[in-house]
């Protein structure tokens, strides 16, 4: 019998009651932690402020680490961003989901180190970390197979040797997967699974792929069923970003939203930031830093230059300037990456909203796949992958509304059924391509009747952070004396592609600014026992 979310919530409450006996110990630990935080706070220069330039998820994790590990008061932390926190759609207009990063059930130490202190947005007296763990214990992901369509080949003996060599010695970041592997490797089921999970292409960095393999190899036997991946009860925005945002606001962190940071000034030695300029609702302002103040900047995100299409129209090309602040800093002093050399690696995400479950149920009938898991359609020239959430994926979603999400990696390629490039396809054409790939084109009219909306979102830099050609363009983590960079486009020792990178890059930047080494926790070491080809449905 499948448990409903309200039943799971009751189970959580029972578990919390059982654990009440440990409350006295927890109180004592909290008192010790508060005393330790107070001691740290006394050692901080009076009036020191930390300015996050960009309200990215990494910025929120950075603010949490400042409070948690360095005893900063919330009112000394300021987060500036161009876009205010917003919702995700409605049953009437359709929902939009831009989730890309997954959560590994293992090796997510930095992520859960923060989320264990953040209260859940949906459930009382429970942390986000516990909510995620309990949800996945109640609804564990287990797919019949992650691939559907044309059967790919095996990984050759030579390519297996190359994979083993990658795990032993990281190549130069500029070396591509195509430089190492033969054409047959990219037609294999093994590559198809990893490509859809990590947004890989032939020109992706082999070093980044090696790090991804190393951190996920504990789940190599489970990648084919998604058992090594955690899901969330709702979308990542509502389950992680929003609770973290509310937690930080409750701590007194200042969120300066709908504000654009336009420039940064340095001292005469061009070493330390002295001021930064913003546009606040058409009013220009300048903030001057005091001694001991620091800036932490997000130079770029995968959502840079993102545009949204509709059921009848493709996502348009972005007409504005790309990462203008990053470019200005590069022109002023260098040593902060090479934004002028950053090339696009587009990804399209799409969200389909339905008023009946005809297509979602037929998808399960045809593929024998399970809810919540990522299914890659190997017949697709667009390299399309789709997923149907386990349950409601948005808190505003009503009963009787159904969601399907998907991603397209080969955006410039003509479709298998729709004879145009994916980036020129409307939401309706994206859905029709999916229907044809599932062999359901005879049911198109009936499926179309149940559609509320299909919204494609174009991310020009969706896969750019792992591109080999872009590795030298990325910003170093410590760009100047009192300036650090965080996020997907700042170099960090972790593998890109999962939620852990957002937290790990923030932790390394914050710790580095205070002359400390960030401990990522005990990493689970990969054990190489060969590579499985991939389970099909």
Automatic annotation (TrEMBL):
GO terms for molecular function: FAD binding; oleate hydratase activity. Keywords: Membrane, Signal, Transmembrane, Transmembrane helix. It comes from the Bacteria. InterPro entries: FAD/NAD-bd_sf (IPR036188), Oleate_hydratase (IPR010354). This is Oleate hydratase. Pfam families: MCRA. GO terms for biological process: fatty acid metabolic process. The chain crosses the membrane at residues 50-67. Residues 1-22 form the signal peptide.
